[in-house]
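Notebook, bench 3.
Goal today: get a predicted structure for histidine kinase from Alteraurantiacibacter lauratis so we can plan the truncation constructs. The sequence was checked against the plasmid map this morning, with no discrepancies at the termini. Length recorded as 715 residues. Pasting the sequence as submitted so the record is complete.
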Amino acid sequence: MAALGQIFLDALHALAGCAAIILALWHLSHKDAAGHLRPRVVAALVLSAVWAFATAVVGHRAIGAQVLVSATYLAWLWLLFGLFTNDKRDETLRPIRPVVHALIFVEALQIGVTLSALGLLDRFGSSALLEPLAVMLRLLFAIGALVLVHNLYAGAAQSARQALRWPAAALAAFWLYDLNLYTISYLAHALPAPLVELRSLALLMALAFLGYGTMRQRSNLRFQPSRSFAFRSFSLGVIGVYLMVMVLIAQALAYAGSDYGRVLQIAFVLVASGVALALVPSRKLRSWLRVTLVKNLFQHRYDYRNEWLRFTDTIGRAGAQSAPLHERAVQAVADITDSSAGLLLTPREEGGMALAARWNWPQIDVPSPALDSAAVRFFEESQFILDLDDAREGRQEGIPHSAIPAWLRANDAAWAIVPLFHFERLVGLVVLSRPPLARKLDWEDFDLLRVIGRQLASYLAEQTSQDALGEAQRFDEFNRRIAFVMHDIKNLASQLSLLARNAEKHAEKPEFRADMILTLRNSTDKLQGLLNRLGRYGAQGHGAHAPVALDELLARVARQYARQHEVKVLDRDKISVIGDGEGLEQALVHLVQNAIDASPPHAPVMIDQRVDGAHAVIEVIDSGCGMSPEFIRTRLFRPFQSSKQGGFGIGAYEARELVRAMGGRLDVESCEGIGTRFLICLPLARTAQMLHAQFANDTSGRSAPIAPGSPPEAA
C-alpha cells in the first residue's frame, strides 16, 4: 500500500508540473492574455513546474526541492506585486513596498537556512535544529503574502475586481494551504509528511483558478487557443502521460519484489520505447490527433487565415527549382484535405478532359481522354464537389454514371473531385487521393474547396491567356516579317516595272542599256540583301556596324530614282558615320520613296548631310502635302497605318527601327501644304573611334598599370 501511495503522489506532482507547463505555453502563444504581466506569470508557472517535477524525482526533503519552493514563493510574490500595478495602486499604497521587501528578506533567510543544513548534515548528521526556524519563516511569508492578497482584492475598485478575482483566488489557495501546513508543523514541532506531499494539490487548485480566470477574461468562457498551440500542447500532454505511465508501471514492477522485477522493468521499457518509436512518426496518428482536437475544441474545422497563407505560399512559389503552376495548383488543393497526391484535368480542344499534371501520383494510369464530354457537361451544370466514396456506394443521388469514369471508380485511392470554375466556365478538375485518415467531406470542406477552386481557376485562366498571347505575338512577329518583305519586294517591283516600260521606248540606246544593266544588278543585290535580312527581322540587332561614307551612299540612293523622280544631293564635305551600310541605305530608300509619293511630279526631293557636334545629320526634304501633328503623333510610326491607297504603312516604321538599331535617331518636321523634313542622326565615325580608343586605354591602364617613367610601348 505504501508503494502505491508513493506512486500516486509522484503522479500527482507530475500532473501539476504538466498543467503548469501547458498554461505557461498558452500564455507564451497569446501575448495579450496577461498583458505586461506575461513574463511574471510565465516565470511563476515554469518555476512551479520545475518544483513539481523535482519533488516527484528526488522527494520534498531534498535541498534542491526546498530551494525551488523558495524560488516559487518569490516568483508568485513578483506576480502578486505586479497585479497592484494594473490600477497603479503600487504608487498610492506606499506600505506595500516595505511589506514586499520584508517578504523577500524573509525568503532570503529561508534560503540561507536551507543551504546551512548542508553543513550541519555533514557535521551532526541531522538538520533538526534548523527545522523550527524554517517552519517559522515559511509561516511568516504565508501570512504576509495573504495580507497582500487581501489588500489586492479588497482595496481594488469595483470595476477592477472582476479582473482580479481569479488571480487573487489562485494566490490565496496557494498560500492558504501553506499557512495551514506550517501552522500545524509549528504546533506539532514536526512537518506532517502527508500534508507536505499533497502540496501539489494546492498548486493544481491555483492553476485551475488562474487558467479559468484567464480564459473567462479573454473569451467569455469559450476556449479558443490557436490550432498549432492546441496540437503541440496536446502532444506534450500525451508525451507527459506516456512518461508518467511508464514511470508508474516501472515503479510497480520494482515494488513487486519479484526475483524477476529488474528483468521485467527492462523488458517493459524496451517494449514501450519500441511502441513509441513506431507510433510517433505515423502520419495517420498525427492526422487522427489533429481531427480529434479540431472536432472537440474548435468551432470551425479550418484555421482560414493559415490555410490562405499556405495557399498563397504554394501558388506564389517561383524560381527554377519550383514545380510548374499546374502541379502547384494540385498541391494547394491537396494540402487543405491532407491528401498526399492529386491530378489536374484540363479541357481538350476535341472535347472532354485530359491529364494536365500530376502531383505525387505516378502510379495511377490515366487514359486519354480522362473524362468524356458528358462528364464535363455534368460538372459544368452542377458545380458539384464530388465525394467518390458516396458515389461508389450510391449514397449521393443525381450523379450520372458517366460522371465518374471507370478508371476512377476502380481506383480506391481516388477520394474526391474538385471542379475549378472561372466566370462559370469549367477550366479544370482536381482529383484528390485519399488522406491518411479518411473522413466524410462536410459543408466546411465544400465551402473552402469551392473558394480555393475559384481562385485557382483564375490563375490557370490567366496563364492560359498569357500562353495564347505569347503565341499570338509570335504569329504577329512572323506576319510583320512577311509584311516587311512584301514592302521591299513592292519597291523592287516598282523599279523593275518602270525599267520595263522605259525599255520599250529606249532599248536601242546604248546609254539606256548600260543603265538598265546597272539597275538590274542593283535590284539583284537588293533581292539578295532582302533574303539575308529576312532572318534578322525581330532580332536584337541587324548587320555589323562599320564606317559608312555618306556621300557615296546618298549618291547611290539618288541614282536609283534618276528615271523616276528628281532626287538632288546637296554638295557637302565628306562625312563618315558608324552604322550598317545596307540598313542605312534601306532606311533612306523608304524615306525617299515616301517623299516622292508625297511630292508633285516636278518638285525635286532634296537630300542633305551636315555635322552637328559629335553626330552626322541626314535630311530628306520634300515640298509635298505635309502631315498634321496628330498624324505624326498617332499614325506615322505605327505599322500597318498608311495614308496611301494599297500601302502597307511600314516604311517609316521600318526606317526608324533600322536607324535605332544603329544607335541613331529619326525625327520628323512637317507642315501641311508646305512639306516634310526627315532627319536621321547618327554618330560620326571619328567620334566613335576616339571613344573606342579612350575606352581601350582606360581598360589597358586598369589591367596593366604603366610603371612610372616607362614608355607607352613598354606597357
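Residues 121-126, 219-225, 537-541, 702-715 have pLDDT under 50 and may be disordered. The chain has four domains: 2-222, 225-299, 312-464, 542-692.
Flagging this for group meeting.
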